[in-house]
Write a structure and sequence with these properties.
The protein is an alpha/beta fold and 239 residues long. The chain contains eight helices and ten strands. Helix 4 packs across helix 5 and helix 4 packs parallel to helix 6. Bound molecules: adenosine-5'-triphosphate (ATP) and magnesium ion.
Length: 239
């Protein structure tokens, strides 16, 4: 029987993209204590996709931020992309995010002063690519998301759906192991949502990424390997 410390150091095998054990997160607002995640367990296999649903305020974004190294944990263990990340300092977490995670949010967060293509090139160069390689990858991804005819448009000159396509391309540009998407179609109409969802799942499959996607849209759960509902601080498999 292993003791706890040793067990915590055990790194899950190569087939695991994310492994979360007994993750707890509590917020304190004045005298109120809110336990958002209550000893949560979760596994994402490499190359697979999990959709997370649940009522507004149940902690979906909180969970995603923690597995992506954007927020600290109270207790519990998170393994992601082959390393333990819950105990990393902020410099190492930044490095971890840069190398392994692609985020897509409800808001596109594209840089307004750069064209769609430049947004990808800049991101790639921040990740250490040479300009020529960055441009080549950016163009290839713009093709993937069907935006080759809009590469010189600034974000303000793109439609909402086009901006999210550019955001998907940007999330993929550093070739991350894991894509974390938080309501990427939350601001889009139904038709555009479908297009974006099909595109995202298609690219995740093509490039063999592991995906966690948070959504209120039940259509997406049909595309994913697994759907989980976050409720009262724990995950429940969808019935
Ligand atoms: N920094 C914070 N300080 C205090 N409370 C917070 C903080 N961040 C989130 N919360 C609270 O934690 C709970 C979970 O928030 P979270 O954003 O994870 O919900 P969500 O499931 O993503 O909701 P939505 O579907 O509306 O995006 C909410 O009640 C929220 O008010
Ligand atoms: Mg949220």
């Amino acid at each position: 029987m292993m003791n706890n410390t040793k067990e915590n150091e055990l790194i899950p095998d190569y087939s695991t993209a994310i492994e979360v054990r007994n993750l707890t997160k509590t917020y304190i607002n004045g005298s109120e204590i809110l336990t958002v995640l209550n000893s949560v367990n979760f596994t994402l296999k490499r190359g697979s996709s999990v959709v997370i649903m649940g009522k507004s305020g149940c902690g979906k974004s909180t969970f995603l931020h923690m597995v992506g190294g954007l927020d600290s944990v109270d207790s519990g263990t998170i393994f992601a992309a082959g390393r333990r990340i819950d105990s990393l300092n902020s410099d190492k977490l930044t490095q971890f995010r840069k190398n392994h995670i692609g985020f897509i949010f409800q808001m596109h967060y594209l840089l307004e002063d750069f064209t769609a293509l430049e947004n990808l090139i800049v991101t790639s160069m921040i990740h250490g690519s040479q300009k020529r390689d960055a441009k080549e990858s950016a163009l290839s991804l713009m093709k993937d998301v069907g935006l080759l005819n809009k590469i010189n448009n600034y974000p303000g000159q793109l439609s909402g759906g086009e901006r999210q396509r550019a955001a998907i391309a940007r999330a993929l540009i550093n070739d991350p192991d894991i894509i974390l998407a938080d309501e990427p179609t939350g601001n889009l109409d139904e038709e555009n949502s479908r297009i974006i969802e099909d595109l995202l799942f298609g690219l995740v499959k093509k490039y063999q990424k592991s995906l966690i996607l948070v959504t209120h849209d039940s259509y997406i759960s049909k595309l994913a390997n697994e759907t989980l509902i976050l409720q009262k601080g724990v995950f429940k498999g969808q019935v």
